[in-house]
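User: Run a structure prediction on this.
Assistant: Running it now.
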Amino acid sequence: MESNKLENKELCTKCGGFCCKKSGCDYSANDFESLHIDDLELKLKEGHISIVSVLKFKQLKNFKISTQPFLYLRARNVDRPIVDLVSLKTPCSMLTENGCTYSLENRPSGGVNLIPAPELQCYPLKDPEEIVNSWKSYQNVLMSLVKRFTGKNLNESLKKDIKLFFLSMIKKDFEHVSTVEQKQADEFMRILKQAYPELWKEACKESKNQYTLQKRMKK
């Protein structure tokens, strides 16, 4: 497809980067010259990319819900860390007043894949899941990178992020978070509470304790 159809700065200027204000876009594994673990580590340390996850839920026979995280890379969101498995999405850190920091040629595939259209009717050229699924063969590499950066295994890091997500939702910590993301996060939390009831209880208890402590300090 011609580049003038893939990119329309006039349309993007009018909407102010609506999609970019919700979250950064996804990288394809094909966006990188090398997928060796050491090379990816160096790219992540540059500060523009995060390891993120999509959670796949499955209803078990005992009515419990199992969770399988699928890891991939995404443009770093504002105020987010390198390992950002579960969180309230914030605007892409590459978004400026003049649009994306990257040229079309250097932009993540997820951004190139979104075709500009009037009245916020932008649409993907191909199924966005294809871009995410390009990381299927590199799950072990990404899991090892999670361990390198956090000192925790994937399950430990995931639970830590889920608890922080719960706390953010309880406190309504929505700074930089778009209204669209807030609505989607509310829907996401419903199933996450079913999958991780103990973490939800811990978050509620911790939030209550923090509130009680703050009240005492004000007296």
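Residues 171 and 207 are 8 Å apart (CA to CA).
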